[in-house]
Amino acid sequence: MAIPFSYNIRSVVARWKAAVVSVLGIAGTVGVFIAMLAMAKGFQATLISSGSTSNAIIRRAGAASEMDSGVSLDQVRVIADATQVARNTGGEPLSSPEVVVIGAFQLKKSGTDANVQIRGMTPLVLEVRPSVEVIAGRFFEPGLAELVVGSNALEIYEGFDLGSTVSFGSQDWKVVGIFDAGGSAFDSEIWADYTILSQAFKRPTTVFSSLTTRLNSPTDFESFKDALTSDPRLTVQVEREQEYYAQQSQMVSTLIRVLGFLVAFVMAIGAVFGALNTMYSAVAARAREIATMRALGFGGGSVVLSFLFESLLIAVVGGVLGCIAVLPLNGFTAGTINWQTFSHLAFAFKVTPDLLVAGVVFAVLMGLLGGVLPAIRAARLQVAHALREL
Amino acid sequence: MKFLPFIFRNLFRKKTRTALTVGSIAVALFLFGLLVAIETALNAGVDVAGVDRLIVRNKTSLIMPLPLAYQERLRQIDHVNEATFATWFGGIYQEPKNFFPQFAIDTETYRTLFPEFVIPDDQWQAFLADQEGAVVGKLTADRFGWKVGDRIPIQGTIWTGTWDFNIRAIYEGSRGGDDESQFWFQWKYLEERRQTSFGGGTVGWYTVKIDDPDNAVAVSKAIDDRFANSAWETSTETEAAFAAGFAKQIGNIRMLIMSIGSVVLFTLLLVTGNTMAMAVRERVPELGVLKTLGFGDKTVLFMVLSESLVIAAVGGALGLGLAKLFTLGGDPTGGMLPLFHLSSGDMVLGATIALVVGLVAGSIPALTAMNLRIVDALRRV
């Protein structure tokens, strides 16, 4: 026969002090666990959302990122003529040759310099990347020293307000617009005309860092890739834009994940110790109660179940509390340097339902670990001996 | 001292609880060690930066080079003793995740400016004699199992092709926290091989040694003024400021990990303190008996407090010891935190924290025990 659950709920309420401590321990562990994963997930999502499935990015074969790649103008022309490349209503191929450089600008928060990605291109980029929208001002005019600034870059760096003048690369630039790229990595970038940017950074204007092309359909990718890699005039590597950006997020998200798991694991051990302690003292304090129940005819199994339930109750309450505590983190914007591109990147935390579920499962595991041994001890109490004890 | 057996008996009365409490303290301190090591690693370079060294980079950004001719011009500036340079190579060994920094260095001056890196003289001579020679830090050498004499192929990303290097020397840092992950080779070799592509006649950045750290600000300004309005303007700062700038770019990730960690640590300590207090509360009647037998208030205070301190000391030692062992095992992320270590200063700090927790957690019940009136205590039997 099972011991009614109301017995456990009441006893938890009766010894609320000890229970609160265990609940806090578990809530904290679950909270940290979710927060770290949400950070890694947010970082990855920011970069992945930068890529579109119907875009392909082309870089020099062997280049690790856009920073060290080079594609010449001749190659750009050959690639744009490929049949898989989509064309706009004017019949122009939707291909965006881009120059990526790094500028040092002051962070608003700390006043120190951070590396900012500056991307040079033609206005055709807006058709290649339809997710990018100019939300204030206008896009730059080709041939002029004008900048359009990503919405996160505007927030993070000093002096990029609309209409202001910025000088770098022995050139004065005017900020003419602000764009929004839907929370992707482009939001941390600054865009300008490629010829002016190349000259300012003393680069030849006939070499680009990468080429992004919009394909007629995402399914055309394989044939596009085959056509390019088998063309003897080209020495390039072709990737789906989304895969390229997923790769760029690997290092930092691995770093956050490893550290997060490590810290959460250590904390979990601490929380299990805490839960064990609470449950053991609960068993010790209620030795007579338990013995009485046994004497009344409740079996050893029901006692084990009852105490396990109590421990799980504490764990689940803690887990849910931990989840609630980290919910406000969803959407919180943080910034860090992405070592793979050497540049600063803003991203938002992503607390997703699967992370919350993982958090509660984690809590239940801790509850089980912390409850099994004390529950067994409770069931093994010598009835006569415990009843005699004061 | 004569109470020692009594204290130990008390501790061993509830073995499970004592073990769990010691365990919790150990876990808390282990976590502390871990967080401190992570913080040190993320702050890499700031603590060990030379006070008399300045970094001169292109004003536009670090990826823009500076002309080779600046070396001589930098040497002419007042208070500058020596100038050396390096170029970031950014190659890949086998696969991108095997990251370690590679610099093409000026072999004539580099070693004088960085005396903290210890290299046996015969190895250094062998490095100078071999154009394809390389010097590698102990950490990286151990990571890939490289020995002096090995030939290492590195895939160039900025300057393409396979570059083969012969490991001629292995350096070690002379201070805890020195970066032992770098890989150096001769800048002349880079210059010779890249003639066909680009970047000839330029270097990545200069490191300048000045006569007195007090002149750092003035010399930085003098250097930047010297090259102002030229085609290659410079930005000069102390090595510490340069490293701190990099560390700051890690941005709030570090702040977040640290604040999360501190909350956790605090909670764990709270939980532990509570357990210790609980253990004393349960024994109030016993303490009454002790007092009845004639033990003074101070003695009772001392006994309760020492019990809590013993738990804290054992737990703390265990936790910090494990943390030290863990950091000795090296970087858990495989190459992203090359300076993962726990300094002895931080271990002392950890030990202090453990003892303070023991003291605080023990003092409330100990004071209660001291002020206990015998009648009240015995009534609860």
What would the keywords be for this entry?
heterodimer, A: 390 residues, alpha+beta, ten-stranded mixed sheet, two-stranded antiparallel sheet, 13 helices, elongated, B: 381 residues, 14 helices
Structure, described:
- The complex is a heterodimer of chains A (390) and B (381).
- By secondary structure, chain A is of the alpha+beta class.
- Chain A folds into 2 domains: 5-48 and 250-388, no CATH class; 62-234, no CATH class.
- Chain A contains 13 helices and 14 strands.
- In chain A, the strands form 3 sheets. In chain A, strands 1, 3, 4, 5, 6, 7, 8, 9, 11 and 12 form a 10-stranded mixed sheet that branches. Chain A has a two-stranded antiparallel ribbon with strand order 2-10.
- Chain B is of the alpha+beta class and 381 residues long.
- Chain B has helices at 4-13, 15-42, 70-75, 110-113, 121-129, 138-144, 187-193, 216-226, 239-249, 252-281, 284-292, 297-328, 344-371, 374-379; strands at residues 53-58, 66-67, 80-88, 102-105, 117-118, 133-137, 151-156, 161-173, 183-186, 202-203, 205-210, 234-238.
- In chain B, strands 1, 3, 4, 5, 6, 7, 8, 9, 11 and 12 form a 10-stranded mixed sheet that branches. A two-stranded antiparallel ribbon of chain B has the order 2-10.
- In chain B, a hairpin with a 4-residue loop joins strand 7 (151-156) and strand 8.
- The radius of gyration of chain B is 29 Å and the shape is elongated.
- Chains A and B meet through helix 2, strand 3, strand 4, helix 9 and strand 13 of A and helix 2, helix 9 and helix 10 of B.
